[in-house]
UniProtKB/TrEMBL annotation:
<dbReference type="InterPro" id="IPR012381">
    <property type="entry name" value="EutP_PduV"/>
</dbReference>
<comment type="similarity">
    <text>Belongs to the EutP/PduV family.</text>
</comment>
<dbReference type="GO" id="GO:0005524">
    <property type="term" value="F:ATP binding"/>
</dbReference>
<protein>
    <submittedName>
        <fullName>Ethanolamine utilization protein EutP</fullName>
    </submittedName>
</protein>
<dbReference type="InterPro" id="IPR027417">
    <property type="entry name" value="P-loop_NTPase"/>
</dbReference>
<keyword id="KW-0547">Nucleotide-binding</keyword>
<dbReference type="Pfam" id="PF10662">
    <property type="entry name" value="PduV-EutP"/>
</dbReference>
<dbReference type="GO" id="GO:0006576">
    <property type="term" value="P:biogenic amine metabolic process"/>
</dbReference>
């Protein structure tokens, strides 16, 4: 499995997906610091929401094979700036989360924002319902 580093705003679903990926019980767990699980790196949302923390992301990315940019389909903010992925020398993919509670227009808007940030391949998932989660897991395992 590729070692994936998950980056996204507070509450976008990074930890929920990681729990699903590792077949853990789905519980709310606010990530306070960078956490390592098997082949996964979970980063706190504050690291992307506060530019002063970007250096922590760049340093930690050295350990990853793929960067996973995540954003909730229900979050209209521009969380990841244009070209965000250029700070990494790794493959970067995008994941739109919480698609089970979003409109098609919201999903499309966030998809474009992730592409603008530099995501090369896109996934639209719901960790809650499991929609398209297996596709993302399969991608990370190959």
């Amino acid at each position: 499995m590729k070692k994936a580093m998950f980056i996204g705003a507070i509450g976008c679903g990074k930890t929920s997906f990681i729990q699903k990926l590792n077949e853990l019980q789905m519980t709310y767990n606010k990530t306070q610091t960078i956490e390592f699980y098997n082949n996964v790196i979970d980063t706190p949302g504050e690291y992307v929401e506060h530019r002063a923390m970007y250096s922590n992301l760049m340093t930690t990315a050295i350990e990853a094979d793929v960067i996973v940019l995540m954003q909730s389909a229900t979050d209209p903010r521009i969380v990841l700036p244009t070209g965000f992925s250029t700070m990494f020398t790794k493959e970067t993919i995008g994941v739109v989360t919480k698609t089970d509670i979003a409109t098609n227009q919201q999903i499309e808007m966030v998809t474009e924002r992730l592409r603008d940030a530099g995501a090369e391949k896109m996934f639209e998932i719901s960790a809650k319902t499991g929609a398209n989660v297996q596709q993302l897991i399969d991608y990370l395992r190959n």
